[in-house]
Amino acid sequence: MKCNIFLFFLMVTLSISSCKDKSPLIMLVQNMQDKEIVFPQSLIPVHTEVDSLAVNINNTPRLIVYFSKDMCTVCNMEKIPEWDGIKSSFKKWNVIYILSFSEQESQKILDALYENCTNDDIIYLDKGDKFKEMNPFIGDNPLLHVFLIDSFNRIKIVGDPLYNEEVLKLYNDYYKKSVKME
């Protein structure tokens, strides 16, 4: 009996101490896992060929890249061409860009769209920042503004594969598994 009580307290102590060791970023990522992303109806597609929220195309996973209005949206848009390599690696997935912006950036946004985006890019404008409002668990950290969702809009992977090799490996592994399941 004393042994069982000792083991119980040991497990509780280890679990509490392991929670303390986790970085705030890891805890935020874990908090986002399997959360459902809600797409506001107010999102405006940049290309009229894109149907109203092309988020369920072929019931495949989608990579969401969210550009917060708290960051320089125009600066972030200049990074869109960098995603071409990712898009070519994951051909069966759609990469969806959601651009939240302030009123002052409106004209700059339009100019940047013409300079940096192609007709193949799936881009939605979020004038009222409704995307973040409806998904408050995303938070303010731009490292957490890129994530993979499944066909049920649940987050499976969080992180930017452009800037983190380990995250890119996670995306690659998930992609290989999803292609095998087809």
Q: Could you say which overall geometry the principal axes of the C-alpha atoms support? A: globular
Assign the structural class, choosing from mainly alpha, mainly beta, alpha/beta, alpha+beta, or little secondary structure.
Answer: alpha/beta
CATH superfamily descriptor: Glutaredoxin
Strand content: 15-25%
| Unreliable spans | 1-19
What's the short story on this structure?
This protein is α/β, with parallel strands linked by helices. It contains seven helices and six strands.
Fold and architecture overview:
By secondary structure, this protein is an alpha/beta fold. The protein has one domain (23-180): Glutaredoxin. The protein contains seven helices and six strands; from the N terminus they run H-H-E-E-H-H-E-H-E-H-E-E-H. It has helices at residues 2-21, 24-32, 73-77, 84-89, 106-116, 130-134, 165-180; strands at residues 44-45, 62-67, 94-100, 122-126, 146-149, 155-158. It has a six-stranded mixed β-sheet. A hairpin with a 5-residue loop joins strand 5 (146-149) and strand 6. The longest helix is centred in the first third of the chain and has 20 residues, at 2-21. It is globular. The protein starts with a helix and ends with a helix. 25% of the residues are buried. Mean pLDDT is 77; it is low at 1-19.
